[in-house]
Amino acid sequence: MMNKVIFFALFLLISLSVFPQQNDKSGHFGGPISTFASSKLGNSISFGGWGTFVMKGNFHTGIYGQISTSIISKKSSIPMYNDYEIKNRFTGLWFGYYHSLKNNQKIHFSYFTKVGFGSVFLDNIKETTTIYDKAICITPSAEAIIKITSFMHLGIGAFYEIYSGVDFLEYKNSDFNAWGLSCSIRFCPSTK
């Protein structure tokens, strides 16, 4: 019964984030995001989605989820795990501020922080083996948003991922900390 309640609550939150109230100034949106990150361990690409569910003026809060892919992968440097790829996955909340330029309605700026709960893991696709450790990732970000149409905006940003709680084989938090670039598509209510 509890799983059904949690599933329904998450479904409701996601639905509300994709179809928010109309107010272009406060940056209400939902949509996909992709990131490119570079750490001591190498480079990676992640995909995910996010959306707002609480908006107050220029401040907004939402949920997000993302997972790293095998498109560009980081290989383990531990001899026994050479065939494993290093990956991560996180789901959490984000808190942000949306700034509109007075003299240009096509360009906006967003400053936000994602707080994700998830895991870092070694993944061997050939053997379907995964070794993981739970972790927290805090990601301060800044993004320039370009209004492409009345309902679709493109965001280009930069971020820094700060990991906590990693106690995983020979790895530590600082091994996963990463600089990165992001690209997001925001589907907003149509503003004429």
Briefly say what this structure is.
The protein is mainly β and 192 residues long. The chain has helices spanning 2-18, 173-176, and strands spanning 30-39, 42-56, 59-68, 74-75, 85-101, 104-124, 129-147, 152-164, 178-187.
Describe this structure in words.
This protein has 192 residues and is mainly β. It has one domain (2-187): Porin, CATH 2.40.160. The protein has 2 helices and 9 strands. Strand 1 and strand 2 form a beta hairpin. The longest helix has 17 residues, at 2-18. The radius of gyration is 18 Å and the shape is elongated. Mean pLDDT is 82; it is low at 1-27.
**Class derived from helix and strand content:** mainly beta
How far is the N terminus from the C terminus?
Answer: 44 Å
The CATH class is Mainly Beta
* Rg for CA atoms: 18 Å
Number of strands: 9
Please, how many helices?
2
What would you call the shape? elongated
What descriptors fit this protein?
Porin; eight-stranded antiparallel β-barrel; 9 strands
Detail the topology: elements first, then pairings.
Blueprint lengths: L1 H17 L11 E10 L2 E15 L2 E10 L5 E2 L9 E17 L2 E21 L4 E19 L4 E13 L8 H4 L1 E10 L5
Antiparallel strand pairs: 1-2, 1-9, 2-3, 3-5, 4-5, 5-6, 6-7, 7-8, 8-9
